[in-house]
Amino acid sequence: MAESELAQLQDRQWEHDRAYHHDVHCLSKLDRLNHYVHHYSKYVGRLAHDHDEDRQREILTKTIADASIVTLAAANTLDLDLQTELEETFGVSPDTIEGWTDIVDNTDSEFDIVETRKWLFSRLAIPTGNMADGLESLDHLESVTVSELFDESLIEVLSFLLVASNHIDRDIVALIEDRWETIEEQAIR
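The structure assignment produced for this chain is given below.
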């Protein structure tokens, strides 16, 4: 059986992180998760700002790419197979990102760029807050299952990113690949 497109992206993210983000890749799992939650918080803040429509499109596109990459990296940190988790969550098993987008985008309406930015802002804030709350609970030695909380939150985030990319008519895989290329070109090795 051929590997799903999502599994291929996770594999490629692992290789990218190992080669270009060694400073994060070598951290403990808990420190990496903390790092990723900071990224998500940054993205929520980025989406909170009103800009002219062209700037909003640029910010939204960059945020979808960046948050997708962080989602892949966080899933890899937790040894979370996103394809399997989505299959268990939605009860179907498309092998392509486009297939998953068709499944998760049940918004039944067209969003313009401003509506998409606002929609993604409000959606990303919830799992980001949940992940931050889970990590804070560990600081206070409270009983919490961070792995389960992250698993659920990452599936939510991925689903929201797929919907947002669909509403701005952008191929999320191409956005991710373009962002990897930019990062890799700018890297000092």
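Interim note for the steering committee: The CA atoms of residues 26 and 104 lie 33 Å apart. DSSP finds nine helices and no strands in the chain.
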